[in-house]
Amino acid sequence: MATQTFTITQPTKIHFGVGAIADLAGMVKELGGSKVFLVVDPGLKNAGLLERITAPLDKGKVAYVVYDQIDPEPGLKLADNGAKLAKKGKCDCVVGVGGGSAMDVAKAVSILLTNGGKAEDYLGLGKIKKAGVPKIMVPTSAGTGAEVTFTAVFINEKTKSKGGMNGDPLYPDAALLDPALTVSLPPHVTAATGIDALTHALEAFVSTQAHPISEMYSLEAIGLISANLGMAYAHGENMEARSAMLMGSLLGGKALAIAGVGLVHAMAYPLGGMFGIPHGLANAVLLPYVTAYNIIGNPEKFATIAEVMGQNVDKMTLREAAEAAVEAIYNLNQDVGIPATLAELKIPAKKIPEMAKIALTVTRPVENNPRKPTLEDVIAIYESAFAGWGHQH
């Protein structure tokens, strides 16, 4: 600690609890909002959840405009169109409900309403000058942790690449986390979003930017997710498991916002940008392979991860304990039906060199990674993720 200097910004008010959605109108009013721009995942309608969000607003006599033109991997135009509609509707507060995509679009709309311009003007770091209108995030998956981060990720339609807006003004003013809203998530979405949350916590834990405060969030998140994801996947109505997963996702988001993520995320970007693989699924498939590569960069931390994930490491050497982390991740993936290889995602092997080049352009996660990757390294990891473990397991 004597060699570390760090700064933490954590401005988001967090309201957590089963049934907490009933307090939505009160939270809007508390932030000074009178008309809400409600950004929702289209899936919410099909799941019959939209009513659960609008009812408290109706009851509290808060007007709203619903915007449900959201894609799983959103393009910049979704933010631009949203901002136009919000302006036209004279909305002074944004509420994002759903997965990471809906929350990212909601964050961007909030910023565009006060800063003007187009979404692509704000890609990168530190481009956002003014605070946005008040924004409240309501995650319905456990998930991305986007409700407590300062990032909004989009596909740039022109370049087909993924890029993020980053900056403190993107931090939501409030996050409302109601585990009851996650109950209707289908098992495969529970799985992919759950491993996504695990990836955030795990990558933040081994990040070169990690420090005692981020590590506290990371370890708690890894413990909650690894102990509860199987149960939430097996029986969606298990409210205890759903609550633990939503808390784990929140803490993973906190860890990510403080310490950043690593090579798994960098390598997941081209899978989303080039092939439309959902972010959580891309992370999940890559996680064991990148972990195996990273072990030598920080064996002690990987040994700790193995232990927190329930592996019995007492009689193991440090190296064996660290490798047990890969085993634990691989087994959890298997339990919840995550595809074992990139081949199963129908990714063409000949695109691997191009993907590797793009992955290395995602500079911050690459810099945070505990092992410094070369282009050959990244190609080799993609190739092993394509081929699978062979007879290792």
Short description:
This protein has 393 residues and is α/β, with parallel strands linked by helices. It has 15 helices and 9 strands.
Q: Describe it for me?
A:
With 393 residues, the chain is an alpha/beta fold. It folds into two domains: 13-182, 3-Layer(aba) Sandwich (Rossmann fold); 187-387, Dehydroquinate synthase-like - alpha domain (Dehydroquinate synthase-like, alpha domain). It has helices at residues 24-30, 42-46, 50-59, 76-88, 100-115, 187-206, 212-234, 239-259, 263-275, 279-294, 299-308, 318-335, 352-360, 363-368, 375-387, and strands at 13-16, 35-40, 63-67, 93-98, 124-125, 135-139, 151-156, 161-166, 174-177. The strands form two sheets. A six-stranded parallel β-sheet has the order 1-9-6-4-2-3, sandwiched between helices. It has a three-stranded mixed β-sheet with strand order 5-8-7. Helix 6 packs parallel to helix 10 and helix 10 (279-294) crosses helix 15 (375-387). It is globular. The mean pLDDT is 95.
Element layout with pairings:
Elements (H helix, E strand, L loop, with lengths): L12 E4 L7 H7 L4 E6 L1 H5 L3 H10 L3 E5 L8 H13 L4 E6 L1 H16 L8 E2 L9 E5 L11 E6 L4 E6 L7 E4 L9 H20 L5 H23 L4 H21 L3 H13 L3 H16 L4 H10 L9 H18 L16 H9 L2 H6 L6 H13 L6
Parallel strand pairs: 1-9, 2-3, 2-4, 4-6, 5-8, 6-9
Antiparallel strand pairs: 7-8
